[in-house]
Amino acid sequence: MNIILFGPPGVGKGTQAVLLKDKFKLLHISTGEALRGEVARGTELGKKAKAIMDSGKLVSDDIVAGIVANAMQNVGDRKGVMLDGFPRTVAQAKILDTLCAEKKIRIDHVVSLEAEKELILKRLSGRRFCDKCGKDYNIYFNPPKVEGECDACEGGRLTQRTDDSEATHLNRLNVYEAQTEPVKGYYAGKGLLRTVDGTGTPEEVFSEVCKILG
Ligand code: AMP
């Protein structure tokens, strides 16, 4: 089974992706994670991408398509791929069609997580992660036991992503509406789009997604 996890930044795709990849034995391909890895390693690509990411804009279709094409080679013994954060433009969706045709794979479902803008902004601004073990928190919805400190590891401090600022959030949501929302229509036209209310708890949302994936 190959799926696309779709939805605005902050809707909870990352949280669902972790649950789904384990349950359905999928290779999780997150273009955002891959790009943050490039930035952290200080690669040429990472240097180019950082300023664009910090401003909330999209990096070029070629760059992300290259990341996905490479990652797709690592399916190994998993049962398929789960794309998270890709495609984000109709042009990327068309590139993905070509990649899938080349690799003889088919996208089975496009699961779109949906939530109101106000809730998304709160989720984005509350988002923190541990600088040591990477565990995710949200200071409004899923706070640590002690403010600023990781529950899961000794000495881990909670920090924000460098693209987690108010201005960037608004920009990312505007970019989503202008460039990414149209991708939904693209997949609706192919009969692949499934929408899920993303406002419940992670467990509730997961249960709804599982109903779709069977
Ligand atoms: P994410 O973690 O998916 O929210 O992605 C973080 C940032 O990486 C985005 O705001 C973009 O700047 C960049 N990015 C991730 N995926 C893509 C994509 N498919 N196309 C263009 N830019 C992307």
Helices and strands, with pairings:
Elements: E1 3-6, H1 13-24, E2 27-30, H2 31-41, H3 44-55, H4 61-71, E3 81-84, H5 90-103, E4 109-114, H6 117-126, E5 127-130, E6 136-138, E7 158-159, H7 166-189, E8 193-197, H8 202-213
Parallel strand pairs: 1-3, 1-4, 2-3, 4-8
Antiparallel strand pairs: 5-6, 5-7
The structure holds adenosine monophosphate (AMP).
Please provide a written account of the structure.
With 214 residues, this protein is an alpha/beta fold. The N and C termini lie close together (11 Å). The strands form 2 sheets. A 5-stranded parallel sheet has the order 2-3-1-4-8, with helices on both faces. A 3-stranded antiparallel sheet has the order 6-5-7. Helix 1 packs across helix 8, helix 4 (61-71) packs parallel to helix 5 (90-103) and helix 6 packs across helix 7. It has helices at residues 13-24, 31-41, 44-55, 61-71, 90-103, 117-126, 166-189, 202-213; strands at 3-6, 27-30, 81-84, 109-114, 127-130, 136-138, 158-159, 193-197. The model has no long low-confidence stretch (mean pLDDT 94). The protein has a single domain (3-116, 166-213), classed as Rossmann fold, CATH 3.40.50.300. The protein is globular and about 50 Å long. The relative contact order is 0.19. The structure holds adenosine monophosphate. Adenosine monophosphate (AMP) binds next to helix 2 and helix 3. Residues 9, 31-32, 35, 52-53, 56-59, 64, 85-86, 88, 92, 163, 172 line the site of adenosine monophosphate (AMP).
